[in-house]
Amino acid sequence: MLQARRTTNWRLAGLPAPSRGRAAALALASAVLLGAVFGTLMTAPVGFAQERSVWDGVYTDVQADRAAPVFSQSCAGCHTLSPDGEGPLAGQPFWDGYTQRTVAELLTYVRTNMPNGSGNSLPAATYNDLVALILRSNGLPAGKTELAPETAAAVRIVPKDGSDTLPANTLVRVVGCLARKGSDWILTSATAPERVDKTGVDPADATRPLGQHTTTLKFVLTRLDAFAGQRMSVSGLLVGAGGVDGLNVATINRVAETCP
Ligand code: HEC
């Protein structure tokens, strides 16, 4: 039952784990799909206003304490709760792997896959507790309400500075206006890169508010001239942290003829 739980569009069954292998596969598969118009799929944008973050106290200390002996017994053989050592679940590896994901995704991953290969072998509540411990080990504050699948769904994992800078090679989607700059194609008025689990268009892309970013599109294999000035949804891998050097394009779709 919990298995079927999904958060909006960016939960893919299986692994939310970092996308190293996938990155390579994707770069190879870099294919450009053009011209899709998704008018019929349009839906209202998801309301992010009510979303909470991991800084809002989304687990209790009692929970994390309860998980400590379980962790020692069932997890510590392969993981540490610090940034160093084998299988680190705290510090930079945690932020690289989970920034912009939800706590529910982390919980689902742990519950269905851990301890290694024996998912769901522990009581459901124990998995909640273990995720509480992982959050605490990352310096995130405890609160008054226990972490549970229902409460974790809308809790976003973001660094404290709110920078949201995603690591290089993260699979993301960006929506913006297609323009030329020298020999490059770029997106102007673009949204901030949003982490996704699969390439392609989101139904909300045709109408979502645009941003102020400019993104260079790298490795575009197809002529885009016919789409200049139109609203495009692009998915691909960030080149450099936060996409400072652009986006290695996997898919590019027109989602509206006018832009912005
Ligand atoms: C026998 C070794 C082993 C045990 C025991 C184990 N894990 Fe893992 N765990 C792994 C491996 C290997 C991965 C990476 C899987 C991948 O990337 O596909 C992983 C990945 C993870 C991740 C995702 C983070 C990342 O770096 O990909 C979390 C969170 C996690 N484990 C938590 C736990 C918890 C909690 C327990 C105890 C209930 C546990 N693991 C027990 C081997 C183990």
Q: Which terms summarize this structure?
A:
five-stranded mixed β-barrel, 23% helix, alpha+beta, binds heme C, two-stranded parallel sheet, single chain, Cytochrome Bc1 Complex, Chain D, domain 2, 8 strands, disordered N terminus, 260 residues, 2 domains, 6 helices
Helix/strand layout:
Blueprint: H1 20-29, E1 52-53, H2 61-74, H3 92-98, H4 103-113, H5 124-137, H6 149-152, E2 155-156, E3 171-181, E4 184-190, E5 194-195, E6 213-218, E7 231-238, E8 247-256
Parallel strand pairs: 1-2, 6-8
Antiparallel strand pairs: 3-4, 3-5, 3-7, 4-6, 7-8
The structure holds heme C.
How would you spell out the order of helices and strands? HEHHHHHEEEEEEE
Radius of gyration: 20 Å
Q: Please report the number of helical segments.
A: 6
Shape category: elongated
Order of neighbouring strands in the sheet with most strands: 3-4-6-8-7
Biggest sheet overview = 5 strands, mixed, barrel
Give the overall pLDDT as a whole number. 83
Helix content: 10-25%
Could you give the distance between the termini? 41 Å
Q: Structural class of the secondary structure composition?
A: alpha+beta
Number of domains: 2
> Which small molecules are bound?
heme C
Report the strand count: 8
Instruction: Flag low-confidence runs.
Output: 1-49
